[in-house]
Design brief:
- The protein is built from 14 helices and no strands.
- The chain is mainly alpha-helical.
Length: 334
């Protein structure tokens, strides 16, 4: 039964990846735009050059990128490259490869978003659990309205507010970037402190904006557990409040939160596109923005493919692990 469940979910995962990858391949071609010609035209305009011979140059680059071949041949080559995670060359930054661009920026996004996602999850879940627990101190109820307010504010607006207050007015933090422009990236303690200093404001904007999401979700689940049989039984046994809180209430209420956390980690690569753009943070979100601005669909499809695989893999792992976390869910056919 377990093996059948795993195989079925894995085949569904592969199907989703194939359908999404095919959609990514078709959409840019249905738009009617020629990214190679647009790139050459932009360069010619910037340099003040004449557009003579532009058509011949475009054809030469299309041949180099494989865009002159029939659509079905491009599709087969595209799927072969995806299997090898080879996203080809970047049109805007040629001859640099898409893999190289992603490799340069992925560490910044992972370093920032993985930390702030877990931090927001921990703080928000703990706050929500305390707010939904009837035996919590009364003063905690005054925390509910600020959390509710933060949940309604988009993280990019919070980013602008934080920049204005702490970077522009108080000058406690830098306005943009992942590190000082005058410095070169290196593996040193001094550079690590500088990176953390630059990451505080973008990280704080994401944590503050998502804190309410985690807190409200956990608070609602904690309230629903109060009338469950296992809570009534635990109280009848005379268990202490702290044990009932963690071992019974939180343990059961946190299951939906775990699912949401896995999905959040699945979209961690582009979860802060606007924040990275606002702060000019050198992560995947900013790379995606630049690729869209320059119509570099090789980079766009590479980044979107990574997001799809990450989200699909996260969903697949949730499907496998959830019956282990919740005994009420079983590996059954249907």
């Amino acid at each position: 039964m377990f093996q059948y469940y795993i195989v079925r979910r894995f085949l569904f995962f592969v199907l989703i990846i194939w359908l999404a990858s095919t959609t990514i391949f078709l959409i840019p071609r249905l738009s009617g735009q020629d990214p190679v010609k647009e790139k050459l035209l932009l360069e010619a305009q910037r340099g003040g050059h004449m557009q003579a011979g532009l058509e011949e140059m475009a054809k030469a680059y299309q041949k180099k990128f494989g865009l002159d071949k029939p659509l079905y041949v491009q599709y087969v080559n595209y799927m072969k490259d995806l299997v090898r995670f080879d996203f080809g060359p970047s049109i805007a930054y040629f001859p640099k490869s898409v893999n190289s661009l992603i490799g340069d920026s992925v560490i910044w996004t992972l370093g920032l978003l993985s930390v702030v996602t877990f931090l927001a999850f921990f703080l928000g879940t703990l706050a929500g659990a305390l707010l939904g627990w009837p035996r919590s101190p009364g003063f905690l109820q005054y925390v509910f309205m600020p959390i509710l307010t933060l949940a309604a504010i988009p993280y990019y607006l919070l980013a602008l507010v934080l920049i204005y207050i702490f970077a522009f007015n108080l000058e406690w933090f830098p306005l943009f970037g992942g590190y000082a422009v005058a410095n070169l990236p290196e593996w040193s303690f001094t550079f690590a402190i500088e990176v953390i200093h630059h990451a505080i404001l973008p990280g704080a904007s994401i944590v503050l904006a998502s804190l309410g999401f985690w807190a409200l979700g956990m608070r609602g689940m904690m309230i629903t557990t109060q009338g469950e049989d296992f809570m009534i039984q635990a109280e009848a046994k005379g268990l202490k409040g702290i044990r009932m809180f963690f071992n019974y209430a939180v343990r059961n209420a946190i299951l939906p939160q775990t699912t949401a956390l896995a999905l959040s980690l699945g979209t961690v690569f582009t979860g802060s596109v606007l924040v990275e753009v606002i702060f000019r943070y050198p992560g995947l979100g900013n790379t995606l923005y630049q690729a869209i601005r320059l119509n570099d669909f090789f980079v766009i499809r590479g980044l979107i493919f990574i997001v799809i695989v990450s989200l699909g893999l996260a969903t697949f792992l949730i499907d496998i692990a959830y019956p282990l976390l919740d005994p009420r869910v079983s590996y059954k056919k249907g």
